[in-house]
């Protein structure tokens, strides 16, 4: 009887652990997000099909009770856009029960703010694109730090993230591009910012109060101000470490230059094509862990890809690249952008062997094209 009882107990345990939260499909099962949210049970997932959505059913989603819900997309942020029309996606403006809310794999456009968290909310924002928002994510009044904001892009926003007074936030592996301010803070935020890239913003990070902020392994490039502080900045520099601040109009405004202290440095990041917003890396980029003294990845990407062989930056590798490489090597023509695009053979340097290899690749032996020597 004992083995039988054990088998019964084991079967009951297995059945209990395999119970899964429900999936609510929009728009096939529910016409909009508000309808799906009203029907959602504890820790259900609301799944959006690809497309562009707008209207009152997709903004100002009510968060009035203790809930646990994930709103995500079937095919990722590149295929699923919610136009908030200067509204809010998720918001709760009063103190109440704890909520665990996840937004995963969505493009949220024209939000003001797109997502707002307040006291008691535990937030998880992942793999989202915030596009042309007045504010992407706003957190304050002791908002939780359940997972925070991870692997998101903030593009052409007034403010990517605002951490208001007493906000508690974790931001990691995010990209802030062409915003007025990538991250801005109020008084006494409790923030960790790691492995983020700030490029072509007016302020990469604007700190009103630097108390309780940890910033590590971030990359600042091409901003008007890399790091801008006003107000209290005395506590900043013991916890500002292993950041690359390079090529901004002012790398630091307010604090002294941190280059050389706590692993901070200032070196060309060697992105593949900054002018066109392609922030993948060359093999020699100091942002890669093998190429800096901190021995860790700096910024939000470790992708090495420069379209090797695309010497004329046309988007294709063809006979025109052979012509461009001949022009560069022998006729004083313009250099490739980036230069590594012409390093097609396995040996270092750009010379006639790269030209021979490229011709072989295109017309003779279909050789693979490595990225760099």
For this entry, give a set of tags:
373 residues, Type 1 dockerin domain, 10-stranded parallel sheet, Pectate Lyase C-like, 4 helices, 2 domains, disordered N terminus, mainly beta
Give the CATH superfamily of the largest domain.
Single-stranded right-handed beta-helix, Pectin lyase-like
Main-sheet strand order equals: 1-2-4-6-9-12-15-18-21-24
Tertiary shape: globular
Oligomeric description of these chains: single chain
Largest sheet: 10 strands, parallel
CATH architecture call of the largest domain: 3 Solenoid
What would the CATH topology of the largest domain be?
Pectate Lyase C-like
In DSSP terms, counting alpha (H) and pi (I) runs of 4 or more, how many helices? 4
List low-pLDDT spans.
Answer: 1-19
**C-alpha end-to-end distance:** 69 Å
Strand elements, count: 28
| CATH top-level class of the largest domain | Mainly Beta
Question: What's the structural domain tally?
Answer: 2
Describe the overall structure:
It is a single chain. This protein is 13% helix and 34% strand. It has helices at 2-17, 33-39, 319-330, 352-364, and strands at 23-26, 44-48, 51-54, 68-73, 80-87, 99-104, 107-111, 115-117, 121-126, 129-131, 135-139, 148-150, 153-155, 159-163, 168-172, 175-177, 181-185, 190-194, 197-199, 203-209, 213-216, 219-221, 225-232, 240-241, 244-246, 250-253, 271-273, 278-281. The chain has 2 domains: 21-284, Single-stranded right-handed beta-helix, Pectin lyase-like (Pectate Lyase C-like, 3 Solenoid); 306-373, Dockerin domain (Type 1 dockerin domain, Orthogonal Bundle), CATH 1.10.1330. The strands form 4 sheets. Strands 1-2-4-6-9-12-15-18-21-24 form a 10-stranded parallel β-sheet, covered by helices on one side. Strands 3-5-7-10-13-16-19-22-25 form a 9-stranded parallel β-sheet, with no helix packed on it. Strands 8-11-14-17-20-23-26 form a 7-stranded parallel β-sheet, with no helix packed on it. The chain is mainly beta and 373 residues long. The model is unreliable at 1-19 (pLDDT under 50).
């Amino acid at each position: 009887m004992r083995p039988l009882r054990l088998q019964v107990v084991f079967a009951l345990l297995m059945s209990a652990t395999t119970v899964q939260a429900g999936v609510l499909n929009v728009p096939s099962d529910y016409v909009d997000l508000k309808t799906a949210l009203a029907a959602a049970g504890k820790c259900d997932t609301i799944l959006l099909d690809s497309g562009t959505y707008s209207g009152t059913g997709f903004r100002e989603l009510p968060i009035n009770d203790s809930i646990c819900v994930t709103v995500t997309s079937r095919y990722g942020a590149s295929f699923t856009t919610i136009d908030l029309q200067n509204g809010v996606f998720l918001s709760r403006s009063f103190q109440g029960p704890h909520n665990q809310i996840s937004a995963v794999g969505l493009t949220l456009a024209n939000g003001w703010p797109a997502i707002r968290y307040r006291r008691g909310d535990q937030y998880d924002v992942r793999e989202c694109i915030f596009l042309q928002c007045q504010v992407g994510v706003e957190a304050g009044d002791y908002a939780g730090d359940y997972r925070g904001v991870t692997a998101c892009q903030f593009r052409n926003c007034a403010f990517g993230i605002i951490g208001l007074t007493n906000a508690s936030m974790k931001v990691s592996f995010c990209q802030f591009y062409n915003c007025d301010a990538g991250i801005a803070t109020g008084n006494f935020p409790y923030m960790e910012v790691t492995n983020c890239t700030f490029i072509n913003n007016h302020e990469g990070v604007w700190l009103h109060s630097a108390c309780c902020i940890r910033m590590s392994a971030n990359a600042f490039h091409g901003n008007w101000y890399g790091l801008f502080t006003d107000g209290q900045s005395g506590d900043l520099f013991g916890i500002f470490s292993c950041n690359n601040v390079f090529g901004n109009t002012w790398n630091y405004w307010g604090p002294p230059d941190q280059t050389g202290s706590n692993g901070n440095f200032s070196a060309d990041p060697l992105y593949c094509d900054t002018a066109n917003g392609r922030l993948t890396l060359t093999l020699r980029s100091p942002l890669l862990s093998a190429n800096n003294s901190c021995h860790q990845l700096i910024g939000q990407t470790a992708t090495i890809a420069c379209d090797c062989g695309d010497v004329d930056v046309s988007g294709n590798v063809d006979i025109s690249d052979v012509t461009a490489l001949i022009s560069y090597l022998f006729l004083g023509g313009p250099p490739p952008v980036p230069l590594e695009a012409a390093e097609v053979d396995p040996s270092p340097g750009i010379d006639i062997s790269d030209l021979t290899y490229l011709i072989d690749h295109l017309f003779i032996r279909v050789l693979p094209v490595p990225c760099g020597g």
